[in-house]
Design a protein that fits this description.
Layout: E1 2-7, H1 13-16, E2 30-35, E3 56-64, H2 72-91, E4 96-98, E5 102-105, E6 108-118, E7 121-129, H3 144-148, H4 154-169, H5 175-184, E8 192-197, E9 200-209, E10 215-219, E11 224-227, E12 233-235
Parallel strand pairs: 1-2
Antiparallel strand pairs: 2-3, 3-7, 4-5, 5-6, 6-7, 8-9, 8-12, 9-10, 10-11
Helix pairs in contact: 2-5
Length: about 240
């Protein structure tokens, strides 16, 4: 079963999708819910994800936990790769993945991802900024429109993404392949960047992300240090 539902408005597609998931979700099933007006969206690690009505997409996908025999960190990466590839095909620009799972297009965040386990399934929540132009409160954010000056119809884009996602997971990749692709598309990898580490600014170079969800950075002491999300912040 593969089905995508549309809601005119909702608090959070990650919360609403459970109402559409069958009691027994088969391994091959894919259930999706999307809206262009999400009022209480959630981002990674407790952050909020706000979207302007009718300008951006909030979509949640429910799959069986048996579908991905990986750690959550790898599923996070895999989802980011799929979203990144979809936007690359759409825009003909090569986005980067900002660890752990933000999509960066021309230095601006245009998409974010939230994974949650609910009942017997994995829920993957994805926000894609499509048409929004005003990001005064979020200077590091942008939309596909602000970065390309091309307008895409959000309803059509949501349906196209759902089909793209379904096709991608029908041809699953190995953990090694996922890590290789991630590290080849990692934002600011092998570049000198400024990081905030517990309130102290320090130069460092991202070297890799690993299977456990850690980011490895070479700091000013010329040693590699690993960090989990929220333990370090890139300043750019």
């Amino acid at each position: 079963m593969k089905i995508l539902h549309h809601l005119t408005e909702c608090n959070s597609t990650n919360d609403e999708i459970i109402n559409f998931v069958p009691s027994i979700l088969q391994k091959e099933d894919l259930v999706g819910v999307y809206t262009l007006n999400q009022t209480q969206g959630k981002g990674q690690y407790g952050n909020s994800w706000e979207i302007n009505p009718n300008e951006n997409i909030a979509i949640s996908l429910a799959v069986s936990l048996d579908r991905f025999p990986f750690a959550v960190s790898i599923i996070n990466y895999y989802t980011a790769i799929i979203v990144r590839n979809f936007i690359a095909n759409l825009t003909q620009i090569q986005p980067k993945i900002k660890w752990p799972n933000d999509i960066i297009l021309n230095q601006k965040k245009v998409s974010g991802i939230l994974l949650e386990k609910k009942n017997n399934c994995l829920v993957i929540g994805i926000g894609i900024n499509v048409l929004q132009q005003n990001f005064e409160c979020f200077p590091k954010a942008g939309s596909i429109y602000t970065q390309t000056h091309h307008s895409f119809e959000p309803h059509l884009l949501a349906k196209e993404f759902f089909e793209f996602f379904a096709n991608e997971i029908a041809q699953p990749k190995t953990e090694a392949q996922i890590l290789e692709i991630l590290n080849n598309t990692l934002f600011k990898k092998d570049e000198v960047c400024v990081f905030d580490i517990k309130g102290v600014r320090q130069n460092g170079i991202i070297r890799k992300a690993d299977a456990e969800g850690y980011l490895w950075i070479e700091l000013e002491d010329e040693q590699l240090h690993k960090f989990y999300h929220k333990e370090i912040q890139m300043l750019y």
